[in-house]
């Protein structure tokens, strides 16, 4: 099962284990990870589930869709090359682990 490590803006790390067939956003919500607001519930219309994928892990993920890319232009915290919307990160057994850094703000 994949493990996700969320790193808060203050550097606090929290690791959770997730069964496949879930988005990283859902896993964060189910486990009470702070700083992932996900106001639209994964409908790709809010941009408040922004994360920075750790540089060591970015190649594990397929590139963002055009729709995700457009929404990333609207996120509150600075967009970086590793920015993703975690509602669009689908976990699978092929992904052993991911480190996701939570931005300072989602609004
Ligand atoms: S939860 Fe709204 S865009 Fe991801």
Describe this structure in words.
This protein is of the alpha+beta class and 107 residues long. It has one domain (3-101): Roll (Ubiquitin-like (UB roll)), CATH 3.10.20.30. Helices cover 13% and strands 21% of the residues. It has two helices and five strands, in the order ββαβαββ. A five-stranded mixed sheet has the order 2-1-5-3-4. The chain is globular, with a radius of gyration of 12 Å. The mean pLDDT is 96. Bound molecules: FE2/S2 (inorganic) cluster (FES).
Please state the second-level CATH architecture. Roll
Shape category: globular
- The helix count comes to 2
Q: How would you classify the quaternary structure?
A: single chain
Q: What is the count of β-strands? A: 5
CATH top level?
Alpha Beta
> Which fold does the CATH topology refer to?
Ubiquitin-like (UB roll)
Number of individual domains? 1
The structure class reads alpha+beta
Sequence of strands across the biggest β-sheet: 2-1-5-3-4
Sheet with the most strands, sense and barrel status: 5 strands, mixed
Helix content: 10-25%
- Overall pLDDT, averaged? 96
Query: Could you tell me which ligands this complex binds, including any ions or cofactors?
Result: FE2/S2 (inorganic) cluster
Radius of gyration: 12 Å
The CATH superfamily name is Beta-grasp domain
Distance between the termini: 32 Å
Instruction: Detail the poorly predicted runs.
Output: none
Q: Write the element-wise H/E pattern from the N-terminal end onward.
A: EEHEHEE
Estimate what percentage of residues fall within beta strands: 15-25%
């Amino acid at each position: 099962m994949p493990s996700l490590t969320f790193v808060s803006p203050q550097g606090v790390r929290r690791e959770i284990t997730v069964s496949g067939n879930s988005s990283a956003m859902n896993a964060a919500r189910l486990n009470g990870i702070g700083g992932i607001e996900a106001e639209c519930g994964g409908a790709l219309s809010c941009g408040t589930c922004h994360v920075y994928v750790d540089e060591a892990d970015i190649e594990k993920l397929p590139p963002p869709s055009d729709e995700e890319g457009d929404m990333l232009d609207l996120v509150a915290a600075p967009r970086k090359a590793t920015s993703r919307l975690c509602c669009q990160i689908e976990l699978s057994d092929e992904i052993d682990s991911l480190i996701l850094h939570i931005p300072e703000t989602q609004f």
